[in-house]
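Entry 14. Ran structure prediction on the chain below.
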Amino acid sequence: MLSAQGDCYKRLEDAFVKRGSYGVGDDMHRNVIISFFDKNGSSTCASGKARVENGQIVSILVQYDDLVYEPYEKKFYNEKKQAPSINNGISDMCFTADGEKFKVIFIDKLKPKQKALKEVTLPDDL
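Output, structure tokens:
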């Protein structure tokens, strides 16, 4: 699994809160980030894929260091024991029976940074 400097999930969440997300349609999304949380709330991020059906995540694949994607075999669900939904490009917290917790981030749906105005420098003789 790959970990960005600092808390990778926090950095992603901040970007999505600030910039927003395009809608996540039903499809196999081939470029997602899966953020696994440890017991202390720190996150480790991995590359993956996710299948979305009816607005909910039904399956994921995780990429390993040999660059191969393998299905995530554990059953996962949200707090309500249902398939996780997606809000603003990020899934509900996903849980497994053995205590793993993760979120799926649809990085391709992050809206671009807004353009900043180019300020001008006024001449001194005004």
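Residues 26 and 52 are 5 Å apart (CA to CA). Will compare against last week's run tomorrow.
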